[in-house]
Amino acid sequence: MSAGQTHFPPAGGLRFTVFTVPPAEPGRSDSLSADAERELERSLPGRAGHMESDQHGMHRTPTLDLICILSGQIWLQLDDDDVQLRQGDYVIQQGTRHAWRNRSDRPAVMAIVLIGTVSTSTV
Question: Which class for 106: exposed (0-12), middle (13-18), buried (19 or more C-beta within 10 A)?
């Protein structure tokens, strides 16, 4: 990512990334330490502005997301449901409030295409 560019693309923009979610540590909450939050913002600029402060990991972005699980397992946490995804599964979502949870003992690797859309207000 070049200087000044944010993780989430502007309307009409595109980002492609391969994202690895490590397994959750036993007994650890979903909350990130302050150091981990700073590192996440350093590596994915602008991401913190889309995160909800009261529920770690929950977020909604002005993007159309195309996601394919390359390896491992991951749970897509939604408002009313958790969906377990495995290698070869895919998700297409737009503006969905969600979080990613790795409840397995191995890393989960996802290929992600983010397409910037016009931001809409949400309730």
Answer: exposed
Give the pLDDT of residue 46: 58
Q: How many CA atoms lie within 13 A of 75 on its CB side?
A: 15
pLDDT single digits (tens) 34-47: 665 666 666 565 56
- Which CATH superfamily is 14-116 part of? Jelly Rolls (2.60.120.10)
19: tokens are: 């994202």
